[in-house]
């Protein structure tokens, strides 16, 4: 399997520790998350899975992911679109869990990873009706 890089249109050069990851397609990030999980590195698995979810929202046209905005600013953009409001609560819950592990130093074990991955998959299934409905929340 070969992966092509995402065609990312950004106004600025991507910087920071996630810059290279944000150029990958969501499918590649999900695959890497599964590999990390199989190795017992659940923190990295969760990180890659969450980034895959954010980029999935971008690729499906729900929003245009902007590296200059926080995840919470992106979520606030969803609130402004009446038909995307139902995405806010589940995405907020996933984001809180990600933030606790990534920035708060919380642990992530096998059970927590499995639950996060299942919730992310359920959320992705919810995205389909909203694809390209608003041309992307901004």
Count every helix, treating DSSP H or I runs of 4 or more residues as helices.
Answer: 5
The backbone outline, from C-alpha atoms, is globular
Mean pLDDT figure: 83
Helix content: 40-55%
Explain what the structure shows.
This protein has 138 residues and is mostly helical. It has one domain: Four Helix Bundle (Hemerythrin (Met), subunit A) (Up-down Bundle). It contains five helices and no strands. It has helices spanning 26-38, 42-59, 71-79, 88-102, 110-127. α2 (42-59) packs antiparallel against α4, α3 packs antiparallel against α4 (88-102) and α4 runs antiparallel to α5. The radius of gyration is 14 Å and the shape is globular. The model is unreliable at 1-14 and 134-138 (pLDDT under 50).
